[in-house]
Amino acid sequence: MPGITREEVAHLARLARLELTAEELDHFAGQLGDIIGAVARVADAATEDVPPTSHPLPLTNVMRADEVRPGLSAEQALSGAPASEQQRFKVPQILGEE
Known about the structure:
Blueprint: H1 6-15, H2 22-42, H3 74-78, E1 84-85, E2 88-89
Antiparallel strand pairs: 1-2
Helix pairs in contact: 1-2
């Protein structure tokens, strides 16, 4: 089973700018060793007869075709606005700039 040494954990901690105590180095070395072992077991899975997929279920396109349809005119779009100016929505100034 692959492992990670205390020195490697200390090196990773320095790279991450973490200050670890001696007890934490020993503790994390064991934990990271277990994680590395678990990840290594994934390579042992029997996947020769499993095709690569990006999704476990087949997907179908459920989007509709693009069709040009008439939209709102500027007057219709602005009809419910509290204020408008030059065929645009008028909003309160927030930055104090001209």
